[in-house]
Amino acid sequence: MTVDASPKGRIRRALLRSSLTPRLDWRIARTSLYACCCATTLSTAALPGKAHAQQPASQQPASSQPASQQPFVPEVVPVGSDVEASTSGWRQVLATVNKDEEGPTLRAGSVVSGGGFALGGHWRETLATRARLDTEYLVSIKGYQSALVDLSSQPIADGRITFGAGVKFDSLPMEDFFGLGPSSEITSHTSYERQGIDTRAWMRIRVRPWLELTPTFGHIDTRLLSGEQSGIPSIEARTWASPVQGVGRQSRFLHGGLTMTLDRRDSPKYTRSGGFLRASVERYDGLLAQDHGFVKTEVDARGYVPIHGLSSRDVLAVRGVALLTDGTRHESAPFYFLPRLGGGGLLRGYETSRFIDTQALFASVEYRWQAARRLQVVTFVDSGQVAPAMRAFSLSNLQTSVGAGIRYRGFRVDYARGAEGGRLHIGVGASF
Are 314 and 368 in contact (CB under 8 A)? Predict the structure, then answer.
């Protein structure tokens, strides 16, 4: 290539360079701007938290927080949990069970301990006065029935006070009775049917977010009929060594009491830590000549400790219960109002209502292993006894049962063994 070295050629080359310089500088600037935009876009995609940092909190996507920083959500999903609400098919139906919301919902559980698995429906309606009407009906595989109508007011005093009234009907056709006292024999098994209508007014006072007081007043009408269990004699067909109050007749009582509930659990449905205490005192005054007044005192204390055992989400749960009944005129209450142990609620290794007397003490310890995402495996020990008086409790009368169970999607299956064999229990929700 020949270069013009003359002065004229040097001038021509200088002018050419001066005309290209702005064009080349613009191309470089444009290329740099394009590269910067691309880098910004890529970095935004790679770091979504920064991209949405300026958005209002209500507009930020729920997934913008890294999964490792999400708060812990227990994986044992109870029946009716909102966690299942976005699914389809049978899970969507399952999500409506025992849900606390307006309109119709399904109900699953039990009418009373030992009554068998029950299904039914619940309807909640907010009236024009903003009062709330709740109706519910349950029927079990053993023919137990429960119906409820309850009307509650709009909360007043900054939501601290709610009051209401309701009526509940129960029909329990296959109840068990083995006699009174800790030494009752399994061979003395009898049955009876109990029907009751309990009408009461109540008030709920929220002293603190974790503390409630509930005074109640009402009237309860109870009738005892012959038992319907095949092969089991009815209660009135057997002669008992000591008198059993309330057999084969009707009773009517006015009752009033106060319940205190202290709830410091991290979650009422799937608890991992905290404590719970419920204590109540209720007096019953008889309206019929055969009925005598009595006072029922109940204390139920529970504690939950998260531990790192078989998994990082295990829980040690403990429970202590005291059920005390004292006659106001040195007479015992009808036997069906007395404390009882045995069945799926208290002392799981024994028949339902296996031990009945005026006083009862119970304790339970559960180790809850989070075996899988929605599967919990439980081992437990239950222990308790009944007695005619507090001074009559003795270690020689202590009854104990051990067992294991599983919890899956809110359903519970427990198997326990006591001195009289093993028992299988199926229910909904945690045992406590």
Answer: yes
Residue type, 226: S
pLDDT class of 319 with cuts at 50, 70, 90: very high
Most confident of 37-51, 326-340, 411-425: 411-425
Does residue 17 surpass a pLDDT of 60? no
Per-residue pLDDT at 328: 67
The matching CATH number, chosen from 3.40.50.620, 2.40.160.50, 2.40.50.140, 2.40.30.110, for 124-428 is 2.40.160.50
When mean pLDDT is compared over 10-14, 154-158, 182-186, 379-383, the highest value belongs to 379-383
Tell me the pLDDT band of 142, cut-offs 50, 70 and 90. very high
User: Is the pLDDT confidence value at 43 over 90?
Assistant: no
As a whole number, mean pLDDT of residues 350-369 equals 96
Region 69-97 average pLDDT: 51
3-state secondary structure the chain: CCCCCCHHHHHHHHHHHHHHHHHHHHHHHHHHHHHHHHHHHHHHHHCHHHHCCCCCHHHCCHHHCCHHHCCCCCCCCCCCCHHHCCCCCHHHHHHCECCCCCEEEEEEECCCCCCCCEEEEEEEEECCCCCEEEEEEEEECCCCEEEEEEEECCCECCCCEEEEEEEEEEEEEEEEECCECCCCCHHHCEEEEEEEEEEEEEEEEEEECCEEEEEEEEEEEEEEEECCCCCCCEHHHCCCCCCCCCCCCEEEEEEEEEEEEEECCCCCCCCCCEEEEEEEEEEEEECCCCCCCEEEEEEEEEEEEEECCCCCCEEEEEEEEEEEEEECCCCCCCHHHCCEECCCCCCCCCCCCCEECCEEEEEEEEEEEECCCCEEEEEEEEEEEEECCHHHCCHHHCEEEEEEEEEECCEEEEEEEECCEEEEEEEECCCC
Dist CA 150 CA 168 (whole Å): 8
Structure confidence at residue 28 (pLDDT): 38
